[in-house]
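Table 4 source record.
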Amino acid sequence: MSEQEKRTVSANDVVSLEYTLTVDGQVIDSSEGHGPIEYIQGQGQIILGLEKATYGMAVGESKEVVVPPAEAYGEADPNAFVEVPKSEFPPEIPLEVGTPLQLRDNQGQIFDATIAEIKEDSVVLNFNHPLAGKTLTFQVKVVGIRSATPEELEHGHVHHH
């Protein structure tokens, strides 16, 4: 057996992972067609619950990982809903529930929001992450494992050669 075949995912490994993410029975993200994601294990570069589940997986191994909100995008925050007068919306923005928006505050910071509700004179915006409060189901397959280089560890991300 080669070294690569016996190897399992451990901290500071660069892991190549094929994945499909399902939420409420619908596929919302997948590496299919884009190739696997690569990340450094143990660095918090992927969702905590998924990272915890990949420790010890071998190349070629697949599994289903169910991640509760606490180990994914957190619970939805009831204080993250903000009511804004309709007059503040430029006419080109469709005022429909579910419309994603990017807003900039006075300091120039960008926030993502989604239209949650439309009232007579105002619009309720939801600043929670779209997946907050959701249980995520990942179908994953480890397709490669190698040690991260000292440079990758120092920079905190994978370098492509």
